[in-house]
Design goal:
8 strands; 13 helices; alpha/beta
């Protein structure tokens, strides 16, 4: 199976005391399915994966897996600063039934050469050898800046279950090179929601992002307009997406601000875990007003 369409990077719901609020995931999954989302990328950046314990990450994944089906893939981010811990999480993901695993480059003792990064990934991927493995390229967060062309060249020979790359970077030349590597053998998943239209123009078929949690119908309409050649309509929807991201950046970014928006949209995701700062009550009220000023709620509803 090749992925197509929108994959949400879900928030990890928490109670006000910071403990996991797993019961929220049922309604969360049903809403995403209703909105046409084709799967979830669990415990990545948006899911605060690195801030959770291994036991918590397993529990979150297991809850999401209750809702996996042929039209809704569950991908488990299992990256960790310890390769042994990441390998353990990968083995658990495979045994629990995850559709795929993915790994972000380690943010401490960052590999600077492709061979180092591939060796790290290979040790993890071999613990889940019968399901797809994706590398999660997000240098702005991980600090790992190995060229993905070099990574693919080496990983293609050393990681048999390598399926592709979740490409969250603005180097579109490199992304195109990865897309055409070995006759487009590997899937490149687009990672920047606010420039999805650019990715579509380059041939992207699937995208993973945080704003798909609460704006998926709008992006689905964007894709439909693009496929019909209705570029002005697609551009208008992308500009609206940019407006929302601009507001997000004013309210502590995509995770904290995104959790607040998700709550405003009916799925209570609670606070963030330190060191991320949760949106305050005052900020929450201001965020709602700013969203109302751009007719956010009417726009996402009309996209359904």
């Amino acid at each position: 199976m090749r992925l197509k369409g929108l994959i949400a990077a879900p928030f990890t719901p928490m109670h006000q005391d910071g403990k996991l609020h797993l019961s929220v995931i049922r309604d969360y999954a049903l809403k995403l399915k209703q909105d046409g989302v084709r799967g979830v990328f669990v415990c990545g950046t948006t899911g605060e994966g690195y801030s959770l314990t291994p036991r918590e990450r397993k529990a979150v994944l297991e809850e999401w897996l209750r809702f996996q089906d042929k039209d809704f893939a569950v991908m488990a981010h299992v990256g960790a600063t310890s390769v042994l811990q990441a390998a353990e999480l990968a083995k658990h993901a495979a045994e629990a039934g995850a559709w795929a695993t993915a790994v972000m480059g380690p943010s401490f003792f960052q590999p600077s050469r492709a061979e180092e990064l591939v060796a790290y990934c290979a040790d993890i991927a071999r613990e889940a050898p019968h399901i797809p493995f994706y590398y999660y390229h997000i240098p702005s967060v991980s600090g790992v800046r190995v060229a993905m062309t070099d990574f693919l060249a080496r990983a293609s020979e050393n990681i048999p279950n390598l399926r592709g790359i979740k490409f969250t970077h603005n180097n579109l030349m490199e992304m195109q090179q990865c897309m055409s590597f070995k006759g487009s053998k590997y899937e490149i998943l687009h990672g920047y929601d606010e420039v999805l239209l650019g990715g579509l123009a380059l041939g992207i078929k699937a995208a993973v992002g945080s704003t798909y949690n609460y704006m998926a119908p709008l992006y689905s309409n964007l894709i439909t307009h693009f496929e019909k050649g209705e570029l002005e309509e697609a551009r208008a929807l992308q500009r609206f997406s940019v407006q929302v991201v601009e507001i997000l950046l004013k309210y502590r970014g995509g995770v904290a601000g995104g959790k607040a928006i998700q709550s405003l949209c009916g799925i209570p995701c609670g606070p963030c875990r330190l060191p991320l700062q949760t949106v305050s009550d005052k900020e929450f009220t201001s965020l709602r007003k700013e969203l109302e000023s751009i007719r956010f709620f009417q726009t996402i509803t009309s996209s359904l």
